[in-house]
Specification:
Two copies of one chain form a homodimer. By secondary structure, the first copy, chain A, is of the alpha/beta class. Chain A is 56% helix and 11% strand. Chain A is globular and about 40 Å long.
């Protein structure tokens, strides 16, 4: 039986696409939209909000500014989304092998002592810029590099807040891959090879 | 042709042994003692000093305490060893595929724009303690964990001093592997598979 695989990724590194193709190759579920749908049902919040606040800390979300004081008295919507999402991830993991991208899934499964392979996908700015431009196209008055750095920062802040750990610390991953120097196909092959070794 | 492979490793993670076996499996040179020997000839310092100061900053080596002032006027023995070692590493890399362990080799080759695969081997304290005890045996009055942390710190300080970079930053490695969760054999297989993919 293949292991559960979590994929943490830098924005624009291709981690999402790599995870999708790994799941396809191993013929196991790829959990992304499903997590959003189930979290929406469990929490009562709409899908758009969960997609937006399910793994990023944004300035529009003021809860991060008053977190220390507020969490002593009540749960913020983001806290409720985190908890509902956490439950969905744990339930999904209990169903068997799958690939889960982001959403602090590495931390959530580690804390629950559910065996899995934790993978980090990263890449240098040059490759990430090219990938983002290819995927989303050029947007007028938007600096791609600034957008990438902002997205990374939001994810790091979210991760820090809910795990009290530093995002990207190598000791949290079984495997960390540079998709820029290795290429997407090579990353997919290495993760699948590791999953096959583990399944023996 | 296989690529050059550099291996950075936490103390006790088995990175040295993994590098040795990868070189054996790919039938390419494993550079460790040879670097020490050639650096000794080039620098004039004895092998024991190069082994001790070739990748660790020790308190016995006072140069690190006075580095800011001293380097403005003259080169310390450690600086001379670093420069001689750097030359030996660059010359070795020009000869063709090989495996080089530690000694800032990832940084030295990156700076010289010599293509290579940079690998980081790490592991949790439990596995590293077991490995160090198995390799060196228990030493009276020596706390194994303290010894491991000290050795890591010395290597990190050395790396920081000569590269001005943070040792263990994931963005410096094509591949980072947890030898504790994956096991030595699995790490060897993944590195060899990557070398084979790259050689095509």
């Amino acid at each position: 039986m293949y292991p559960i695989i979590t994929i943490s990724r830098e924005f624009g590194s291709g981690g999402h696409s790599i995870g999708e193709k790994v799941a396809e190759k191993l013929n196991i579920p790829f959990l992304d939209g499903e997590i959003v749908n189930k979290t929406a049902i469990d929490s009562g919040y709409c899908k758009e909000l969960i997609e937006e606040q399910g793994e990023t800390a944004t300035m529009a979300n003021k809860w991060f500014d008053v977190s220390a004081a507020s969490t002593m008295y009540f749960q913020s919507p983001q806290d409720e989304i985190f908890l509902a999402q956490r439950k969905v991830i744990l339930e999904a993991a209990k169903q068997g092998p799958c690939v889960i991208v982001g959403r602090c899934s590495d931390y959530i499964l580690r804390r629950a002592e559910i065996p899995c392979i934790n993978v980090l996908i990263h890449s240098d700015m040059k490759h990430r810029k090219a990938r983002v431009l290819e995927r989303y196209g050029e947007i007028k008055d938007v600096d791609v590099e600034k957008r990438i750095r902002k997205k990374d920062k939001q994810r790091r802040t979210y991760y820090r807040y809910y795990t009290d750990q530093h995002w990207g610390d190598y000791s949290n991953y079984d495997l960390a891959l540079d998709s820029g120097t290795l290429g997407e196909e090579c990353c997919i092959d290495i993760i699948c090879k590791l999953a096959e070794m583990r399944s023996k």
